[in-house]
Write a structure and sequence with these properties.
Elements (H helix, E strand, L loop, with lengths): L1 H22 L6 H8 L2 H14 L7 H24 L7 H7 L2 H8 L7 H6 L9 H12 L7 E5 L9 E5 L9 E7 L6 H4 L4 H7 L2 E5 L15 H15 L2 E11 L1 H10 L8 E5 L5 H5 L9 E7 L7 H13 L3 E7 L11 H9 L6
Parallel strand pairs: 3-4, 3-5, 5-6, 6-7, 7-8
Antiparallel strand pairs: 1-2, 2-4
């Protein structure tokens, strides 16, 4: 066990830096971001090698094998990011390297009930010292009876389209109604990966997360038939049929193309969503052209980055002004250091807004 104690602190702190780099990814800053990650290779490699050499009882080897796997994935991610920063590489390669982060988190998460340090890492940083919450999550994850909790997938392997991933908080008591977040990935993304954008905050707050995968390579925003809308409603209905949902707090959110589809679907007359939180996307031209007839009094939390290179921030200003003119209740957050990436550190503010406990500045 001492080998695990030697690996977990540098591994988890390295994952914190990976998350920081992912949040601040802006291709012109790649050399500085590499400086943040490259030294971490040595910090992880030595204790990882010690864990690989350690002799473990047969009934505990699965823990060592899982940690070794996560450690190797972490080193591979950093090496891929460093390589992608080379002068002959395209900026998209930086994003591809960081796509390894979601599967890595999925591999680590089953160890949360077994190691407090891992469980605390999967909480909002401000709540990592909440001993009572950690104990409740562990008890919920390890109980044999009661409701089905944790991460579940519905026809959502990474080589498939049109399925969904679902997170049910381990702390749920089996009866209390929970808010529901429906989180939409960006273009060419996948719901199984985008789930991890929200899991930590949902685990901390006791919130359901539904993360669908578009039927095509992106959502139905390119014209033609809206093939994603009916499926999305069916997924929401499935969750409502199987879990008690707080119908006053059903949030649709998304990144990039997922944000644009959040506008497109969420501003329809028959939407099941009470709140919208698009990030780093644009207001779809179809609802914009028709004057946004269903936007009045809609609660919308709009996030955009001043450094966004795909959808310049002026496009967010156009969308914000049109929504305000149509009578929507808009919170607009423009982040000076945000490029075209999802701002995970904004999730606590969004959840405070969803729950009505604060008014974001």
């Amino acid at each position: 066990m001492s080998a695990i104690g030697g690996l977990l602190p540098p591994l988890l702190s390295t994952l914190d830096r990976v998350e920081w780099v992912q949040r601040h990814l802006f291709p012109p800053l790649a050399p500085q971001l590499v400086e943040e990650l490259a030294p971490r290779i040595e910090l992880v490699a030595e204790p990882l090698a010690a864990l690989e050499r350690a002799d473990w009882p047969d009934d505990l080897k699965f823990m060592r094998e899982r940690l070794v796997d996560v450690g190797r994935r972490t080193l591979d991610l950093i090496a891929a990011f460093v390589e992608a920063s080379g002068p002959r590489r395209a900026p998209i390669d930086l994003y591809r390297a960081l796509r390894r982060f979601a599967p890595l988190q999925e591999a680590l998460y089953p160890l949360a009930p077994l190691f407090e340090a891992v469980s605390r890492w999967f909480l909002e940083p401000a709540r990592r010292d909440d001993h009572e919450l950690v104990a409740r999550l562990r008890a919920g994850a390890l109980r044999d009876d009661g409701p089905k909790v944790g991460v579940r997938h519905g026809a959502n392997d990474r080589d498939t389209r049109g399925g969904f991933s679902l997170y049910v908080p381990e702390s749920w008591d089996g009866t209390t109604a929970m808010p529901l977040i429906v989180a939409l990935h960006g273009g060419s993304g996948h719901g199984r990966d985008f789930l991890w954008t929200w899991l930590r905050d949902a685990r901390t707050r006791g919130v359901l997360v539904l993360s669908p995968t578009a039927r095509g390579q992106t959502w139905s925003i390119m014209g033609g038939e809206d093939v994603d809308g009916p499926a999305l409603r069916q997924m929401v209905d499935f969750v409502k049929e199987n879990y008690p949902v707080d119908h006053s707090r059903v949030l649709l959110t998304g990144m990039s193309d997922g944000a644009t589809y959040t506008f497109f679907h969420g501003l329809q007359a028959d939407t099941p969503f009470t709140h919208l939180a698009p990030a780093c996307g644009i207001l779809h031209p179809v609802p914009l052209a028709y004057g946004l007839p269903h936007a009045r009094d809609r609660r919308i939390y709009l996030v955009h980055g001043a450094l966004d290179w795909m959808f310049p921030v002026q496009s967010a200003h156009i969308g914000r002004d049109a929504l305000v003119a149509a009578g929507a209740r808009v919170v607009y957050r423009e982040l000076d250091d945000l490029s075209h990436v999802y701002p995970r550190d904004e999730n606590p503010r969004i959840l405070d807004w969803l729950m009505g406990s604060t008014s974001p500045e």
